[in-house]
Amino acid sequence: MKTNGGPPAASGHSVSRDGQERRWRRMAQKEYLQAKLTQFLREDRIQLWKPPYTDENKEVGLALKDLAKKYSDKLECCENEVEKIMEEIRCKAIERGTGNEHYKTTGIATIEVFLPPRVRKDRKNRLETRLHITGRELRSKIAETFGFQESYIKIVINKKQLQLGRTLEEQGVTHNVKAMVLELKQSEEDTRKNVQVEEDEQNEAKLKEKRIQRTKRGLEILAERAEMVVDPETTPYLDIANQTGRSIRMPPSERKALVLAMGYHEKGRAFLKRKEYGIALPCLLDADRYFCECCPELLDTVDNYAVLQLDIVWCYFRLGQLECLDDAEKKLNLAQKCFKNCYGENHQRLVHIKIVPELTPVPNFICGTPPHHGLGNCGKEKILFLRLYLLQGIRNYLSGNGEVACDYLSKAHQLFKELYIDPTKVDNLLQLGFTAQEARLGLRACDGNVDHAAAHITNRREELAQIRKEEKEKKRRRLENINSLKGMGYSTHAARQALHQASGNLDEALKILVSNPQMWWLNDSDPQTNNCQESPSQESINQLVYMGFEAVAAEAALRVFRGNVQLAAQTLAHNGGSLPPDLQFSAEDSSSTPSTSPSDSAAASSASTDEDMETEAVNEILEDIPEHEEDYLDSTLEDEEILIAEYLCYVENIKSATKKN
Fold first, then answer.
1. Residue 161 β-bridge partners
2. Preceding amide of 371 cis, omega within 30
3. pLDDT in tens, 224-241
4. Are 553 and 577 within 8 A, CB to CB?
5. Rg of the chain taking only CA atoms, in angstroms
6. If you placed Cys at 393, which of 171, 409, 423, 537 could pair as Cys (CB 3.0 to 4.6 Å)?
7. Peptide bond before 363: cis, by omega within 30 degrees of 0?
8. What is the pTM of this model?
9. ∠ at Cα 162 (158, 167), nearest 5°?
């Protein structure tokens, strides 16, 4: 059976751990041999699909056996195993060449389909299709061909979820592309003996699909709230904060993209913790898409994007589909470059304060990176390098680079020894009232010193509580200032923009609004400030005339400002009794502004009906946002310890492997 080098995702099959480990050890070793043989063939410029290795009938030639003998001696491994793998390489090369010719003459493309780990057959298969069909048609074809239920699978191509309503061509799908199948439930064949189990799994699959859709909606709502004016006492929203927990100012469009990127990342990480890799991957890929909408300077100077690259590669690996990720090496190199930018070539800048945007749900859902307390506080971030070196070691092993893999795995093993925590020390901190997560992070930050860790955690709690209090007060003042400007007749949008330009100073914001009356015209959709009317009342005109303005100018100003006497008076006074030229055209247009229609009330009623669903979606997001700001740096390292030992064993056994018949 073909392997992709990773352990299988959780499934319903009960297999003994020893048997499972033996099976995956054989698979990993086969993967290494295949990569190494492919490397030899390229170096020797040997084309197995041509004579003397393939005859005119495309059958294997006698020369293949001699070549297998040569390479088995070079690798010091079983000749029969080498010959078998080389025959697989030869057959697939012929199959690929035939597909290329077929595509040139007929336009029918071939797609390499990578099936889930539980499938008990060659997991890499080929499927022919035309590229003008829709994603939905391809999903249906894959489901029918390989025995899946169509509604319970997702297709990932080019690191993106296949969009069902668009054609393959529109989505950049080409000949010989790789498609990975993510299964939300197991097939009927595995559960047909138990109808209740099947129904439960179907219900679970539907639930998972709904969770994915709720994740998307919940993050959209929270991202929109970040650009709105909401009461932080009653309405949770997502904000971007630096390592100290203080909000970061940035352009609205970039803020929204970053909020969505980090939101999807946190949701994907929550699924990773639960080992739900098939649901985690779409979230992580969506996070990657939104991160790419942020400015490159930001991505190069903070570690969030690098951590996401590690999580994506880890997810592919745990799904057993690392081979399907063509740019795994690129992602790992990108993460390494970013970590070097953040922490230095030899991690020397880990002892300095860094700015790392993190996700901050408000209120009571804080997630960010707290400040470092003094020198030597670098143990926590070393865990990122451990994961990086581990994945680089695995990838190089599966690519046939045994020596390079050994170097990376040795680095990972050394970091593991440095980061290992004595369980009794964790227990000591638990008895002091700290959580297990706080204990692990504190001990790693303080080189395993229990007293220093306790002080570190206490200081962090106190500092974070003070910062939260200050940020809460800042948001309260901002809301009050916006309401003050709205009380003067300005729209929410105009008030927010003026306060942004004035760095939160109410007096300066008012000056900006008075000097730029056209700002009032921006996106005034609030019912409370949208007092639109077809013509101003005579009473309002008389008020302005009584103040000394001409009746014509008064009426024009009232039309522009939709009957708001205060704004009309301020603008006329600031401009010598007349409207500025850029607002004069609005006097005519404003008279045609429609008033609220009955359909608006119906829309409001409909919106209230959806309120419960939106609340559910938001709460589901907030539940998965960790309370601790350094959650992404916390790990028991249990999985990493097992994998480091396993793959070190693989690379150490490469040269010591004996020949077997």
1. 156
2. no
3. 665 554 455 555 556 666
4. yes
5. 31
6. 409
7. yes
8. 0.70
9. 105
